[in-house]
Amino acid sequence: MMKETIQTDGAKLSVYLQGPDWDGAPTAAIGDFSCKTPDSGLQALRAGIALIQKAGINRVVGPMSGDTWHSYRFVSESDGSAPFLMEPTNKSHDPDVFRSAGFATISKYFSARVPLAHAATSSPTATDAFEVVPWDGTNPEEFFRKVYELSVEAFSQNAFYKPISEPDFLAMYMPVVPMLKPELIFFARRPDGSLAGFLFGIPNYAEGSNPKAAILKTYASLERGAGRHLASRFHKSALKLGCDTAIHALIHDDNQSADRSVAEGATVFRRYSLMGLRLDG
């Protein structure tokens, strides 16, 4: 992924000139942002915007490290609880720096937590359309190849989607293999064996070696109802593993899974925002 880094005494950011499209228009992304003070951050941000304008690009999104496969979004509201594993973090003044440069929120997300004693009691209506089975824990590279293929198909219509190569995807996820628990990873398979969906969960190792929370990190489905069945199995399995809480991580406000999270009794504890700037007015 090509990027240009801007670094000053008090701030640093990366400019990705080939970011995802925004409403069908070519868009740059600004990510990897950090600053000691709002003034130093604004100075670096303006330098990044000038570089983008010079390249003839009129739209910018941020924070985003090139695409939505990598780190993106600011924490915009929080209950003050500690970050969970793989959650984006930032200083409280960072969103204000972007707003000072003319950025506005263009997409909103949240994370919520739910007691497993409650969430694990519900079961969706049985179906013959697919069967939910756990990953057997073998051949992790092949597992992530399957996840890649289904993700590309399931997420291709999402806002700010940008394709990623399979080798780049594997390079992102293979390092986390030692942390995986097959009991928190599931496939939904149709009667012919083809994949209808997957769910990738992981213990919240940010709590330590024996976490009490399990993170529902990502799931995707190609069949109606598959997501609900996958989430149900995840909740039940996490409870059996000794966890007491599930974290529904980084859900888009307008996603169907947002309504499902609320229906399952989850409580929002963090909100996030992706910001954008139109340089052509």
UniProtKB/TrEMBL annotation:
<protein>
    <recommendedName>
        <fullName>N-acetyltransferase domain-containing protein</fullName>
    </recommendedName>
</protein>
